[in-house]
Every structure is written in C-alpha cells, then in structure tokens.
Amino acid sequence: MEQVLNWISQHQEMIYIVILMIFVGIEIIGRVPSVLHTPLMSGANAIHGVVIIGAIIVMGKAESDNYIALILGLLAVVLGTLNVVGGFVVTDRMLEMFKKKK
C-alpha cells in the first residue's frame, strides 16, 4: 500500500493532467452537434493506429515471461484494430449516403 501511495505522490501532476483531459474531452464531445458527431468520431477512431503501433512496440520489448505486458499489448492491438476498422466502416457508410442512387 505504501508503494502505491509513493507512486501517486511522485506522479501527482500527471494524474491531475489525465483527470483534466477526461473532463475536457467529455465537454468537447458533449458539445459536438449530432450532425458532425459521426464524421468526427470515425476520423478520431482512425487515430488508434498510434495505439496499435505503441502496443506492438511494448510487446516487442517485453520480456518473454512478462505475461501481463504481453496480454495487455495483445488486448490493445485487438481493440485498437477493431476501433480503426470500425472508424473506416462508419466513414465508408457515411460517404455512401451522399452518393447518387442508381
């Protein structure tokens, strides 16, 4: 327990920044009109390619017996890939609405 409290006291500024980012993100997303929500979110989902690359780097540098890092890396790759593919599917579907019907 003492180690956790020491870690929190050493990284207090970082924790405050993450909490502030959460509140700012919720405020910004909450004020986006529903007409713009789908194109903005589908583009933002494509940014998860960075998550995929980071997870691959973490898995590549992890020790072979560090199962927690490997499992979390695999989970990040799978979920990031689903998010990227979903973002492109939503964007493609949205663009299909603006094509002329035959």
Give the helix/strand layout.
Elements: H1 2-10, H2 12-30, H3 34-46, H4 49-61, H5 67-96
Helix pairs in contact: 3-5, 4-5
Describe this structure in words.
Helix content is 82%, strand content 0%. It is mainly α and 102 residues long. The chain folds into two domains: 1-31; 37-102. The longest helix has 30 residues, at 67-96. The mean pLDDT is 84.
Distance between the termini: 66 Å
Structural class: mainly alpha
Q: What sort of overall outline do the alpha carbons produce when their principal axes are compared?
A: flat
Total helical segments: 5
Mean pLDDT: 84
Count of the separate structural domains: 2
Quantity of strands, as a count? 0
Strand-residue proportion: under 5%
Order of helices and strands: HHHHH
Based on CA atoms alone, the radius of gyration comes out at 19 Å
Enumerate the spans where pLDDT stays under 50 for 5 or more consecutive residues: none
Largest sheet: none
What is the share of helical residues? over 70%
Task: Give a brief rundown of this model.
This protein is mainly alpha-helical and 102 residues long. It has five helices and no strands.
Task: Offer a few descriptive terms.
mainly alpha; 82% helix; 2 domains; flat; 102 residues; single chain; 5 helices
